[in-house]
Specification:
Largest sheet of chain A: 8 strands, mixed
Distance between the termini of chain A: 32 Å
Structural class of chain C: mainly alpha
Number of helices of chain A: 11
Number of strands of chain A: 12
Helix content of chain C: over 70%
Order of helices and strands of chain A: EEEHEEHEHHHHEHEHEEHHEEH
Number of helices of chain C: 13
Largest sheet of chain C: none
Radius of gyration of chain A: 21 Å
Strand content of chain A: 15-25%
Helix content of chain A: 25-40%
Chains: A alpha/beta, B mainly alpha, C mainly alpha
Oligomer: heterotrimer
Order of helices and strands of chain C: HHHHHHHHHHHHH
Number of strands of chain C: 0
Shape of chain A: globular
Shape of chain C: globular
Strand order of the largest sheet of chain A: 6-7-8-3-9-10-12-11
């Protein structure tokens, strides 16, 4: 295994497939990802590029018909990919927590919300919550910006989207995890609520010092919230850098294409879409999966997926345009 | 130039026809593919096919008569002459079972037609006209549903006089409610479509709308449900036959044959066993096929 | 709406439906039969006897008056007098009904326990042996005719193996105390264990036969429902919280998965009542089902009317209970 690049999380050569009767979906094609403690990493990319699958792999929640067939995930000093289920259970909800896209659907419809939060805090037996746990639930609800008295006995369908997401945040942060994974937490919410939730996350994470992986298809949201960004395309990570660098100095043709398509106040040029269509993951393009759509495609791009190269300090890209000589040229 | 339309050759016309129906053809092809890859549905279909073949070719399968009595041959255990043995009147059980298949086919056929007709008429009327008509018809449906099925069928058959025809009528009168509910739901869906408003605006009368628009949409879920219920129809008919309320002797109805064998059960187990097996076999076939159909039509599983 | 309002609304609807049911039964038993008396007495009965009976049954009154009498009777729970037993039908019903209820309850308990357990384990261990077994069990269960299964099991356990009794509710020289009419319950209350075991050995086979089909459909729905629930988002959340597999299944999935099963249980009750008719006939079980069948075979109209009305009432009541429990289980229904 190569040298760990981050001190909290290191994913290397992660390959995940799904066996379906249409064929084998090669969802992740050797993903490389890493982050440090307390950092905020944004994973951006189109729907289907593998962002959620990566997140679920970290949690060890890839199930039939999916399978991790290659790669390692290192969390602190634990190799998550070789842990047994019981050990993973001890990490989930405690050291790594996750919040999901549709908060109302992500909560158990026949259980009161307070009880669901209590479950993340401590052992609950037979529908009764111990006094200490109860107090803690109240505290978490308040921290999440909810009126605990009103909310604690409600059922999920009685909550608005924003309230439900706050509940999820309360649930996820109750154990003060080292890493919080937020999988498109605001995509299903109204824009104004979106802003509120992001603000809440920002505030809480600053206070408690959790590292955050924010998965989103909205570059604007990622820009707001994250220190670093990883751009994913069709099962690979293609570019990784500090947020400012991604926006000001994108290297990968896909990243450049994405940025050209983002509307921005003050832009007067035409929005350009990236030519071609998202590849079929059952029969993906060979080598670099972006090559059929790339203006700068070369012969070598069709052969193997390009290795990840550190083109500048802290700025990584996976593209043959930037082999060793290209870096040399760029730096001179 | 004006003649080119008329001069489109026959091949062209066929091509055009198929082109326009391409999505429907694709859909059918996909359905066929799904059907082939569901082993249970295939087994069910095979069973039903065998069942139908037996019913149709009954006389070819056995040289005996289902009703003639041969007292010298009574109560014989299964042997090379009589594969399923004989009953207390010397009748070959295999022969009776085989001819019984015809009775069952007939029952399914008539019950299906009557119950579907009643169900669709009631359902469409309720769903399309809505309001008080809907309320009343739905209450009536509820009233029929308030009886356990067999009980109502039993009472109807007994009162009308126990014979095959009345059994079929009775079962139909109990079964229609299911189709009524389905037809009503469809009618309500179609009624609220914008295109219905549109054609009404240009003067289409209710009857026309019902016949050309509501009816075709309602038929398909009803047919599916019918397939799913065929097993139950057979079981109900057999139950009635067993109780003596169905086809009267000497008609070889499977339930009745089982009942015949009851007093001889201990020593001549074959009289009751084989017709019962036949019932189970056929109902199994319908259930497997029904399950398969349900899975195929489930939009989540359709890839 | 609140649970209370929902209940009231449903009860009101039930009353209306029962009125309609009564009308339908009247139609079937009084309007359709061409000549009930002739059918009962046979073709050669003397005219005076026929007229006498007609008058006795009130059949010489105009139809509308008959209907009024009929409704009055029902309201007072007076179903007339059985032509066969010459006892008031109501008494007969009260006599025989507990046996049917006991059988139905026993079957239901069996069906729910077996069905839910099989269904849940089938879903958890999908495509393993328990799943295959359960699916075969289920599909056979809904395909085999109840009466045939009953006969075969009787043949096996009674005639050949001599393990279980061949019918009836209790053996000859046992005289159970009658408190609730439910033999097993009564014998427990009275502390009469001999009667209890005797009754138990008599109820096993019919309860199994009757409950098998219901167990099969419950297992199927339970499996389907469980698989459906296990696919949902909130299960993923529960797992991501680090809850153990056991907790996820039993605390989170099960309650949600049981909701559609409750409906099936209700529907099963209906087929249980239907099946009870056949089961009681085979096992000579002295219940309402057998009573109605015997009444039908001799065209004992008052008995048929009373019995049918009663069963329809019980069935509707059961459906009402199911609907209410459904609303109680799923808070989303109490909108």
């Amino acid at each position: 295994m190569q040298k760990a690049r981050g001190n909290l999380l290191n994913i290397s050569k992660l390959k995940v497939v799904f066996y379906t009767y249409r064929g084998i979906i090669k969802a992740l094609n050797g993903v490389e990802l890493w982050m440090n403690q307390g950092e905020r990493l944004g994973i951006v990319g189109e729907t289907g590029c593998g962002k959620s699958v990566t997140a679920l792999s970290i949690m060890g929640l890839i199930e039939q018909p999916g399978e991790i067939i290659e790669g390692d995930i290192l969390f602190g000093d634990k190799i998550l990919t070789s842990l047994k289920e019981n050990d993973l259970i001890n990490i989930r909800g405690k050291e790594i927590s996750m919040i999901f896209q549709e908060p109302n659907a992500a909560l158990n419809p026949v259980m009161k919300v307070g009880f669901q939060i209590a479950e993340s805090i401590g052992k609950v037996k037979n529908k009764k919550i111990g006094k200490e746990v109860y107090v803690e639930v109240r505290r978490m609800l308040e921290i999440a910006g909810l009126d605990w008295e009103r909310t604690i006995n409600l059922y999920p369908h009685e909550l608005s989207g924003g309230m439900a997401q706050r509940v999820m945040i309360a649930m996820a942060l109750s154990s003060n995890p080292k890493l919080l994974i937020a999988d498109e937490p605001t995509s299903a919410l109204d824009v104004t609520i979106q802003a509120q939730i992001l603000e809440l996350l920002d505030e809480l994470v600053k206070k408690f010092g959790n590292a955050v992986i924010l998965i989103t298809h909205d570059m604007g949201v990622a820009a707001e919230f994250c220190d670093k960004m990883a751009v994913m395309y069709a099962g690979n990570m293609v570019e990784y850098a500090r947020t400012t660098n991604i926006f000001e100095n994108p290297y990968h043709p896909y990243t450049k294409g994405l940025l050209k398509a983002v509307p921005k106040i003050g832009r007067t040029d035409e929005l350009q879409s990236i030519q071609g269509i998202v590849p079929d993951l059952v029969e993906p393009p060979s080598g670099c999966r972006f090559h059929p759509r790339c203006k700068n495609v070369m012969e070598i791009c069709r052969k193997d997926f390009p290795p990840l190269v550190e083109i500048k300090s802290g700025h990584y890209v996976a593209c043959y345009l930037y082999g060793k000589e290209a870096i040399h040229n760029a730096n001179s | 130039m004006l003649n080119t339309v008329k001069n489109i050759g026959k091949n062209e016309k066929i091509k055009l026809f198929l082109e326009r129906r391409k999505p429907i053809i694709e859909d059918w092809k996909h359905t066929y593919y799904l059907w082939k890859s569901t082993p249970l549905a295939m087994i069910g279909t095979v069973i039903i096919f065998i069942f139908l073949m037996i019913a149709i070719f009954a006389p070819l399968l056995t040289s005996y008569s289902p009703t003639e009595q041969f007292m010298e041959e009574r109560l014989l255990p299964p042997n090379s002459q009589h594969i399923f043995g004989t009953d207390q009147y010397g009748r070959d059980i295999f022969c009776r079972v085989v001819y019984g298949a015809r009775v069952e086919v007939w029952i399914i056929f008539i019950v299906s037609i009557i119950s579907v007709m009643i169900g669709i008429i009631v359902g469409i009327t309720a769903g399309y006209f809505g309001g008080a008509v809907d309320e009343i018809l739905m209450r009536i449906t509820d009233m029929f549903l308030a009886f356990p099925r067999l009980v109502l069928a039993m009472v109807l058959t007994a009162v009308l006089g126990p014979n095959l025809t009345n059994t079929m009528i009775a079962i139909s009168l109990v079964d229609w409610t299911v189709y009524a509910r389905l037809a009503r739901a469809e009618a309500m869906k179609v009624k609220s479509q914008p295109y219905i408003e549109a054609i009404r605006a240009i003067g289409a009368k209710d009857l026309r709308i019902i016949a050309f628009h509501v009816l075709p949409m309602s038929i398909s879920p009803v047919i599916v449900q019918l397939t799913l219920r065929m097993g139950t129809i057979i079981l109900t008919a057999a139950g009635l036959g067993f109780l003596g309320l169905g086809a009267q002797p000497p008609t070889p109805e499977w339930g009745a044959i089982v009942s015949d064998g009851r007093s001889y059960l201990v020593d001549q187990w074959w009289i009751s066993t084989f017709p019962g097996m036949a019932i189970a076999f056929v109902v199994l076939g319908f259930n497997l096929l029904g399950d398969g159909i349900r899975d195929i039509l489930d939009p989540r599983l359709r890839r | 709406m609140k649970l209370g309002t929902y209940i009231i609304k449903r009860i009101f609807l039930m009353v209306i439906v029962m009125l309609g049911v009564a009308t339908i039964v009247f139609f079937i038993t009084h309007v359709i039969p061409a000549d009930p008396v002739g059918a009962i007495l046979g073709g050669n009965a003397p005219i005076e006897r026929v007229d006498e009976m007609r008058h006795q049954l009130g059949l010489d009154k105009p139809i509308t008056l008959q209907f009024v009498d009929y409704i009055k009777g029902i309201v007072h729970a007076d179903f007339g007098v059985s032509l066969k037993s010459s006892r008031p039908v109501l008494k007969d019903i009260i006599n025989y009904f507990p046996a049917t209820i006991e059988l139905a309850i026993a079957s239901m308990i069996f069906a729910v326990l077996v069905g839910v357990v099989l269904g849940v384990f089938s879903a958890i261990y999908r495509n393993k042996s328990i799943d295959h077994f359960s699916r075969v069990f289920s599909i056979l269960g809904v395909s085999m005719p109840v009466f045939w299964l009953g006969l075969l099991l009787l043949l096996l356990f009674y005639y050949h193996l001599d393990l279980l009794p061949g019918g009836g509710r209790n053996s000859l020289f046992i005289f159970p105390q009658r408190i609730t009419g439910l033999l097993l319950l009564d014998s427990i209350i009275a502390g009469d264990w001999t009667t209890f075991w005797d009754g138990l050995s008599h109820i096993i086979l019919p309860a199994f036969v009757l409950g098998y089909a219901s167990a099969a459909s419950i297992a199927r729905i339970m499996r389907a429902s469980m698989l459906d629930i296990l696919r949902q988002d909130f299960i993923r959340t529960a797992k991501s919280k680090g809850l153990s597999k056991r907790v996820v299944i039993y605390r989170h999935a099960l309650k949600n998965a049981l909701i559609p099963v409750v409906t099936i249980i209700g529907l099963s009750f209906g087929s249980l009542l239907s099946g009870a008719v056949l089961t009681e006939t085979i096992f000579s079980w002295p219940g309402l089902g057998r009573y109605i069948v015997n009444a039908l075979l001799v065209l004992d109209y008052p008995a048929v009317t009373g019995g049918t009305l009663f069963i329809a009432f019980v069935y509707s009541l059961a459906n009402l209970v199911v609907d209410i429990s459904y609303a109680a289980l799923d808070p989303r229904m109490r909108v």
